[in-house]
Amino acid sequence: MLDDVHESLPRNPDDTNSYVLGSIKRRNIVISCLPAGQYGIVNAATVATNLKRTFPKILMTLMVGIGGGVPSKGDIRLGDVVVGTRIMQYDLGKIVADGKFERTAVPKVQSPLLGTALNHLRAKHELNASRIPSILQQKLERYIDQRLYPGVYDPPGTIKIHYGAIASGNQVMKHGITRDNVARELDIICFEMEAAGTMDIIPCLPVRGICDYSDSHKNEEWQRYAAATAAAYARELIEELPVIQEQPVVAYLTSPDRNRPENRRQLLMKSLGFKQMDSRRININDNYKKTCQWLLNHPGYKAWLDSTRFIQHHGFLWISGKPGAGKSTIMKFAYSNMKRACRADVKTASFFNARGGSLERSTSGMYRSLLLQLLEEYRDLQTVLDNPDILPQNQEDCPPLNILKDLFRDAISVLGQRRFTCFVDALDECDEQQVMDMVEFFEDLGEQAKDHNIQFRICFSSRHYPYVVLKHGIRFTLEDQPGHAEDLAIYITNRLRINDQSLIEDLLPELLRKAAGVFILAEIPSDLSKLFKDLLTRDTKDMDSLLLCIRWILFAERPLQPEEFRHALWSGLSLSKLVDSQIPAATRDKNSLDKVVISYSKGLAEITKSQHPTVQFIHESVRDFLLKDNGLHELWPGMETDWEISSHENLKQCCISYLNQPSVSTSIESLPPGPNSNARENISTKFPFLKYATQSILYHANAAAEVVVQNEFLSEFPIVSWIKMNNHFEKHTIREYTLAASLLYILADKGYPNLVRTWLKDHSQWQIPIHRERYRYPLFAALASGNNETVAALLNTASSMMNGTDITEGLKNRKDLKEYKNRTPLSWAAQEGRLDIVTLLLETGLVIDESDGGGRTGLSRAAENGHEAVAKLLIEKGANINISDGSRSTALHHALQNRHEAMARLLIEKGADINIIDESRSTALHYALGNGYEAVARLLIEKGADVNMSDESRSTALHHASQNGYEAVVRLLSERS
């Protein structure tokens, strides 16, 4: 049935299967069968297990072969094909009290991907007959001497395909009465002996050709023909499966078999979501009636949807426009319209929000949102979460950015012929470098989609980005479109609400000119800066309150909830004695909170309309006025030039003031030990700003440390009470700190490089481990958080870039970082072969021969892994070359045990003691001869190695040399003995 047969590939050492490799219509196929004379569920499970060892990336299997039909079910005839939609292991059960056999097996069904292909093929067969006869005829033309059909029968013209339940068991069914009883009880149409053993190991669909009727009349006459019809059906089904982008096979051959918890995908899917994921799209007003319809007939939009022109635009559409021109509105319209019009296809949307939290304005949040929507709609694509080469086997929380991109790419590659369209709005509200990286990534995806005929489309919208040039794609400017001008005219006409038509005709052209294609300017004057300044200076009272309000909206670590915002303002104003000294009582009254936000911001801030409301400016142009148009200095002429840094210092003081309130301190001390969700909710309700003040005080201090000295703040920082409060708000127990945690460890773990540098100026011996913390050492904590600058600060270098290379390259977000919990920073860096990091660590003055949790020094780890440059540096800096570890092995032992001949020569030349014995009483000479290093052995002998020492097997060097046939060494040893 294969179109092509491929060459064999190496197998996993534990795999006893034999394989035939090939392809059917661009789909790679692996064929294996049970050993001769062996059958049954257990043997089938063994074959499936071995298959997964060598080919862990296989998504599904077909169990193709013969079976016994149940004649009373659906007119099943010899040579027909039965496809198992449900599998029952009929001989699995228990003997109950009255001696009767009670079946305990539960039904097993096929995977969604197989089920989708199966339904597609069944639907095709409703219209057209199966191609089994033509497939058999075509394939058998190559084997004209083979007699496939039984007895005197000729090939039949029609083969029926039956779908239903199959009974699977370890015994051959050859008794008609028993057959009928089981068939009635389980509602099955076929008996076979393997499928139940494979379905718990790998998704499987049994396809059986009927060769007998599971009774005493069994014979082999119909077996070859029945097997052939089943194989022909399997080929027809395989051709319905989506073509998956080819992956390098060898990369997976040695991948270990990884067992995952059944709910791991659900945990990963849940981790992708975040609270404000859809808030920006929800808060965008719907298009005004009769507007936006022009887009559906726009030539560029229609060309983007035209599959025949995909090769030209690679699936890209970019809509750009002025601020306030209605880009988000038209994106929401396009997304909603396509959602209604093309229900069978998947549409996803991500709307950046500069006024939102970090995930709302970053590409990391965008990838999380798009990937989650895609995997929820096409559930079979969730298999990408099982790829051990992308995700570590113990990963259950949200992956970092680089892994999110890999997962998204993998999911796109297995879309097959299904359509997938993304709408990504407001690129200008995301970091510029992130946008450049994202556009490059999507261009690469578009190229792959074109090459593999994958229907993947993406629509961007943004303000004007003249520096972003698409290699392929369709692009148009919103305010230049005639339909957009008509929309604006409709909008203004309806907003005027003037009955005098002649007056409307007089006013409309001037209003359109002033609006300049921008909807927001159709409502307010074109000089926005003057408007905002007029609003804010209409009265000059409470300017301190306004300034604090602006600072919180601009520079909070995350957008504040309304009640948090209210208490944050109180805390800052209490420092200046501008409010009552008592913390205000908490309230959730919407009118009260609206009044606070509007009055303090003088109408330029609002509470968002979402499930989790936050405080933000009424429009992004307010932020532009304050920062880009010099509005802040016009309102406060005496303001510092480094206003952002002074703002962070001011917000830090707000946090300190709140945490030091007597009522807050008393409540913190009275908290019950251990996790307590009720206590957490109660204290958060009573003191709404407490969680933010606790979790963000160090963030503001770190930002202020660019200019403002933080030594006194760190020396007086209430570390123990902060840890208690932080742990109280921490959702994940593993991320909690012990009360003995050092401030440096916390700063490294949180990723605050400026505070790390400040702390290190007043302290030394920072590398001392904190044994009970999650990562033990501050350096490991910083690497785990992926903060390059914090790593650089700990290594006392100005930047993570050294000689044009990032010293953390390949180290941040390491999936195997937890495996180094028992290492010291030096032994870990030496094991990794990172000469740059080892050099920096040595400059911090650490103990060069400090042993890690395995009793190993940095030199020992470098020798074991063959990192000669690292070993040479350590020796030059005074490392003890002869220190033994727990197994009494020296660096020289480890170099020879791990076959690093050049490393061994280096250590010998640098004066390593060559006669030290390890716990197996072996010397360096024993290991050199045992691993075939004749030249090293000669060097050791010339350096004075004791040739008469015997190891634990009482073998001397002469024994080893003789056994390995080293005649020259034997002669040399004989001379020295």
UniProtKB/TrEMBL annotation:
Query: Where does the record place its ANK repeats?
Result: 821-853, 854-886, 887-919, 920-952
- One family name in Pfam for this protein: Ank_2
The alphabetized UniProt keywords are: ANK repeat, Repeat
For this protein's source organism, the top of the classification is: Eukaryota, Fungi, Dikarya, Ascomycota, Pezizomycotina
Q: Recall the GO molecular function terms of this protein's record.
A: catalytic activity
Domain Nephrocystin 3-like N-terminal residues, every copy: 291-463
Where do the Nucleoside phosphorylase domain residues begin and end? 15-236
An example GO BP is: nucleoside metabolic process
InterPro entries referenced in this protein's UniProt entry, alphabetically = Ankyrin_rpt (IPR002110), Ankyrin_rpt-contain_sf (IPR036770), NLR-like (IPR053137), NPHP3-like_N (IPR056884), Nucleoside_phosphorylase_d (IPR000845), Nucleoside_phosphorylase_sf (IPR035994), P-loop_NTPase (IPR027417)
Q: Which domain of life is it from?
A: Eukaryota
Designated name of the protein: Putative ankyrin repeat protein
